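Running this now, will post back.
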Amino acid sequence: MTTPANHPEFNQKWEALMRQLEAVLSIAHEREPNRTQYREAISIAKYHLTQLDALAD
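Update: finished.
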């Protein structure tokens, strides 16, 4: 049985999501976070998560 983690693209997409989540955390912890920058970072993270979800289909 093939699982999403065994998919050839999984590690690449997982690493991209983790990098983006680090960016979200970094922005969130700024003294005065830029709301637009924060929302954009979250949007990109959602995109990467959607890409991972697509591998499960």
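Residues 21 and 45 are 6 Å apart (CA to CA). More later if anyone needs it.
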